[in-house]
Each structure stands twice: as structure tokens, then as C-alpha cells.
Fold each of these.
Amino acid sequence: MHRVTMLEGDGIGVEICASLRKVFRAAEVNIQWDIYQTGEKHFEKHGELISDDCFNSLEKNKVGIKGPMTTPIGTGFRSANVFLRKKYDLFANVRPVKSLGKIDSKFENIDITIFRENTEDLYQGIEEMEDENTAKSIKIITRKGSERIAKEAFEFAKKNNIEKVTVVTKANIMKFTDGLFLEVAREVAKNYPGIKLEEVLVDNMAMQLVMYPERYKLILTENLYGDILSDLCAGLVGGLGLIPGANIGKDIAIFEPVHGSAPDIAGKNIANPTALILSGCLMLEYLGEIEAATRIKNAVDKTLSDKNNFTRDLGGNKSTEEFTDAIISNL
Ligand code: ATP
Ligand code: MG
């Protein structure tokens, strides 16, 4: 039995977490949840976004899954999500983007995994007003940070027989920071003679991805470019409600959907739980429960192959609960 810490989060977080637990229970997965309310509601009651009990549970279980969290102004946090990634040094943000079922989207057969560096770049929050009219933000890229994400990407390529890694930077302009990230990717690539390193500039990458997304299998990139390109890639396959994510560190991993808390549809029982359920499957794979992960992924794919099951974001009218039950009947 694996014990996993669940952070329910804000907005649609509670609803999609309930959906995930229901599917996992029906699939008889070997998981016991330690469930914590986190985010805005918890902050209103206790003056903190995440309780110490929740942190302790994460540190004990080493594996967590979380719904999206908003970070209200006045909490002392810039972003609770960024804080967690930094606290546990979750350096690799892995986001697989795949075509699913019969979803109407501009492309078919997309299968791109994004490896986004998760701790550096402009996300360190080193920002200041130099004077009233001048704002400054500092971008940090280190050799160590670049090397560990590049290795993670190449190891993944090797394991999954992917013959090309596409490294995305703006090294022609940011010669030091992006230059270093690129240089390190080249060095790491030398240890993987069977895998080609393809170098693309981020502006060109944006165009390539909306014209020929099927040419790309694995994208290795920095924090900010990875953030933007993963929303772009989500758009290629039918939207944010579908894309799972993993934040992986040396000994702790936290799984979460790419989308945010979607306050506009919260509490209405219409959110699409797919992204969180597939994040749960990434978690099962991480825990070595490959069979269970495959069974649930297949049930999700089968459910999304019948348009009658679609939630509103996909053009249908099924509720979160109805969609969840359809997955369960397809298990
Ligand atoms: P946050 O500030 O937490 O990032 P946001 O307002 O940016 O929240 P997102 O969650 O990023 O909202 O969502 C952007 C749009 O996509 C919203 O209109 C939202 O309703 C929709 N959306 C996001 N996730 C889902 C989902 N799982 N199911 C249905 N619609 C979703
Ligand atoms: Mg958002």
C-alpha cells in the first residue's frame, strides 16, 4: 500500500480531487490518501496556505498530488505553487501532451513531452523597482540546474526510444543565461550518442508547434518558455483540462494538472477532471504501479472516444460526476 498526500487546492480543486479518488477507488488501486485542505479557504481559517501537518505528511510520504492553488494577495507568498517547487527542489516539471479519444482538435497523433526546468529563470522572484519608472527582474540560470533537467530529459528519451531531444532557448539574444542552458544541453547530449539534439529558438518553436507539432516528441526548456509552450501544446490537443503534470525532485515528487483553479467554473460540477486523473496515472507510474496506470489511462481514453461523455470544455454537457462515472464504467 502506498500512502500519498493529497492537497485539494482551490476553485475546481475539491471537485476534481473527489473525482480522482472515486476513479482510483473503483480501480482498486493500492493507495491510501492523506487529504489536506490547502489554499485560499485554509488561509481564511488558519492564516496559512498549507498547514505544517500537510508539509510533514508530504515529507513522510514523499509523494503528493495536488489540485490547483490560487495565491491570494497578502499571504506573503508570490505563488504557493512556485513555493512548493522551491521548498522541495522539484526541479523537473514534466508535462506529457497527447491526443486523446475523439476530441475535436486541430491535430491528431500528437505525443509531445515537455521537460521544463522548474526552479530557476525569471521565477526566482528577484524583482525590484529601481526607481518609480524602472522595474527590474533578474534571470538566473545555473550549470547545475541546467544539467539536471537536461539529464532527466535525455534519460526519458533513452527509456522511451525517442531519437531526438529539442532544446528550446533564445540563446541568440540572451547569450549568457540561455547560452549556458544550451551549452549544458550540448554537453549532456554527448553522453547519449543515439539521441540527436535539435536546437530551436523559442519564437520559431511557437510557430513550428502550431504548424507541424507531429515533428516534436520531447522538448527541453527553461522555466518561462516551458510555461508558455505547455499552454500552447495544451491548445493543440483540446485544452487545459486534459494535460497532466509531474514535479519531480531528488526524493519528493508532486503531481498536478497544468491548468489553474478555474474560478469561473468552480463549484458548478462542470470541470473536466481528466488532467488531474492523468496526473494520478503519472504518479502511479512513478510508484511502479504500471498496470493500474495503464488501466485507468485506457478507461479515460475510451471515455473520451464517445462524444456523449464530453464535459463542457470539450463541447459536451456532461457534469464532472457523470464523466467520472463514465470512466468507472469503462475501467
Ligand atoms: P489560476 O489563476 O489559478 O491559474 P485561471 O483563471 O488562470 O486560474 P485556469 O485554470 O488557468 O484559470 O483556466 C483558464 C480557462 O480554462 C478558464 O476559463 C477555465 O474555466 C478553463 N479550464 C481550466 N481548467 C479546466 C478544467 N479542468 N475543466 C474545464 N475548464 C477548465
Ligand atoms: Mg492560469
Amino acid sequence: MFEYAPAPESRDIVDIRPSYGLFINGEWVDSLGDARDKTINPASEEVLAEFAHANEADVDRAVAAARKAYDSVWGRLPGRERAKYLFRIARVVQERARELAVLESLDNGKPIRESRDVDLPLVAAHFFYYAGWADKLEHAGLGPAPRPLGVAAQVIPWNFPLLMLAWKIAPALACGNTVVLKPAETTPLTALAFAEICRQADLPPGVVNIVTGAGDTGQALVNHPDVDKVAFTGSTEVGRLIARSVAGSRKRVTLELGGKAANIVFEDAALDQAVEGVVNGIFFNQGHVCCAGSRLLVQESIEAELLAALKRRLSTLRMGDPLDKNTDIGAINSAAQLAKIRELSEAGEREGAERWSPSCPIPEKGFWFPPTLFTGVAQSHRIAREEIFGPVLSVLTFRTPAEAVEKANNTPYGLSAGVWTEKGSRILWMADRLRAGVVWANTFNRFDPASPFGGYKESGYGREGGRHGLEAYLDVRPM
Ligand code: TAP
């Protein structure tokens, strides 16, 4: 049974300004245009703040500031000096972790337990990790004299706002690039707080610039002629547009796009552990995760047992106020995303799959979707093929390992997969055949700054994280 918990007082620890400008050249400036956007709390629909909607002229100013900072300071600074700034940023993030976690949960809708225990520690870890590389780039195995690329245009989505920022900014700065970053329209607040952190860390002006706005702002940024590198995380659809628009230019591009991961449970798996992994795989962050295990492939012989255990476990999850520490499932990030999840779920029913959710009171205000299972799913169903990006699990079955591989790979995506079995040899056999950038064994959604992450096929190209993540921000030609 779900309970909706009332909002506690923790939002008092954040200081949200009513209105934000753009962060360009180390200063808060007004947009040159008049357009403004609002960001709301998806759990209550209350307006949190208003912010500038940057236009082409604003983007131009931001890129010019990044270029100047690159040419005059950052691109020339020894790696050990850059490292000091990154270590400082990491420490400030740690010091302000509580406040940033609350801000993230307010703006995004994710449970505070996740923003506090997953997002924020990983944000700090990314800055610490790449700070460590800044003075060792020639030992990264990328050639004797790697050089930065210049100005990086970075566009990120709303599902892990500050963590995606860290994935982009930490390696870019460690390698000596300067940055103009555009956060998603529905979650700008932690990126704007990060601008303040750059000031606290005394980062030279122009090294990091934050331009808020919507898709047109992102487009102006990636199309800007003075950008050397484009790093994008978001939908495959927008990724395609970006790839087309930079084709033939000198810009280097990395794209982290969508996914439709299979979580594959064999009959010999430790069942309780697998149930936890499947729940974490799809319901973590309301399923707003590019590598979410949105397809459960279960071996036919244990289907009934696994489903019964899964339903029992789902009935214990609490959906409600993201700021309540007991909440497991928070709010859906936006009305548009909720509409998309509803539409695909209705298509699942229409196409003949059976829908199940635990009984669950839905708060009147805000955007909510209960954890949902679909059984009797065929590979041709839209819920088995399309990314839902919500708390919806499609259950399919298989008999043999070969069939599991075939079904798991039967998707245009190739970001991640999970394998649950006690047999080590089977893990290796499966990992060798699954067309996925990450294969987790007896775990899921586990991240580490030292591990490269990225996709095959329509999930994008390039890797973020680890030593491989440096390559995206370096020119590796010998001098
Ligand atoms: P998108 O609609 O693609 O938006 C991503 C970012 O691109 C946002 O900042 C968006 O701005 C901006 N944007 C929109 N149109 C643009 C254009 N024409 N040119 C340049 N930028 C543009 O995705 P989303 O809805 O935010 O995020 C969900 C998707 O991201 C899912 O498909 C998910 O799988 C994928 N994702 C992938 C990963 C990895 S690591 N592979 C991680 C997280 C998310 P506005 O939001 O302001 O419109």
C-alpha cells in the first residue's frame, strides 16, 4: 500500500532566488532578449524560480567568453594548476551536498535518498577523479602530447541534472578545455548553483559558462561556429539532429542517447537479489534513466516465482514527497514526460499486454505514475521497443541463453544490459554476445567515475567516464 507523505521542512535549507540570469565570464548577466522561462516543482507544480531563456546573441557572448578564457588562461595552465581548481570544486560540492541534494529533488522530483546518496556523492567523485588526471594526461595512453580541443558546447538532459553536468564539465576542464553548458529547461537550478560553486572555487572567469533556455538555445550553442567540441546527452531524436548539423564541420562530437536495456534473469540466479536488482533497474529515479532495465527477460521456468516476488516487493515501495527520506518513488519530471509514459502504457494495453500496478493513491497535484508491470509482452509491442523513460517494466520470457541474447539484442539501442546467474562462465558468455556498452552481472545501475560509459548502435558514440572519457576532450595527435 502506498502512502503519500507531506512535505517536511528540509526545503528551508535551500536558498532559491526568484529570478536567475545567465552565467557568462564569471558574472551573472541579463539575457539580451526578453524571453524568460519558469521551473516548477514537479511534485507540487509550484513555481520554484524564473530564469533567462538565452538567445543566439547570448550564446555568442558565452562562447566568446569561453574562447577568451581558453586562449588567455585555461588552455595554457599547467595540468597541476587545473587540478587544484577541480579538487576545490569537488570539495565545495561535498560541503554543499545537502543543499544541492534538496535543490535537485525539488527541481527534478527524484527522492532525496537518491539525490543525497547517489547523485551528489557521484558528482563529487567525478570532480575528484578527473582532478587526478589533469597532470597525468600524457600517461593516459592517448599519445605523448595530448592537447585540449578548445571550447566545448555541452547540452544535458533533466534526469540527473547535476551528475550529467559533472560528467561533462569535469573531464573537459581536466583536459584544458573551456565550457559553455546548457542545462535542460525543466531542471536548471543545480547548474545555476554550480555557477556559484565555480565562483567559490575561484575558477577564472569564462572557463565555465552556463546558458539556460530550451531546445533553441541548445541548437544555437551546438551550431556556433567557434565551438570545437559538442557533447550531448539526451534523446536519440535530438542526437540525430545534432549529428546532422555538425556534419562536415571541424567539431568533434560525443552523443549519449537513449536505451532499452534488458535485465536477464536465469533460473539459477539468487532470486531475492535479482528482485532487488530488477526493482532498482527500472524504478530508480522513476525510470528516468537512459540505461534503465526496462525489459525484464526471465527464464520461463521461474517466471511465476519471480513475478510473484516482484509484485510483493513493489507493494512495499512508497511513492510520494521527494523530500521525504522514506520515499522510494518520486514525481515524474514534467507533464510532457507523464503524457509520454501514459501514452505508451495505454499502447501496451491496446496491443494485448497485461498491466499491473500495486494499489496506490495518487496525489492531486504534481506529476505521478505508479510503478507498473506489463506481462505477456511480445517483442513487437511498442512497450518492448520504445524507450518509456518512466517506471514501467515490460516482462518477456526466454528458454535458452541464446534466445536471451537474441531478444536482448533485438533493439535499435545498445547502452546497457544486466545478467543474473550464479554461473561465472555464463556471465562471460553473455557479456561477449550482448551488444551493450555496459553489461552488469548480478547488479544493475552501478556507476563509478573510473568506468567508461556509453552506447552501441542508436545509443550514441563516444565514452564518458574513466580514462576513455579523456579522449573525447583531447586532440591526441603527436606534437
Ligand atoms: P532531449 O529532448 O533530447 O533534451 C536533451 C537536451 O537537449 C535538453 O537540454 C534540451 O533542451 C536540448 N535540446 C532539445 N532540442 C535541441 C536541439 N534541437 N538542439 C540542441 N539541443 C536541444 O532529451 P530529454 O527529454 O531531456 O532527456 C531524455 C532522453 O535523454 C532520453 O531519451 C534518455 O535516454 C536520454 N538520456 C541519455 C543518457 C545517456 S548517458 N545515454 C543520459 C540521460 C538521458 P530542453 O530540455 O530545454 O528542451
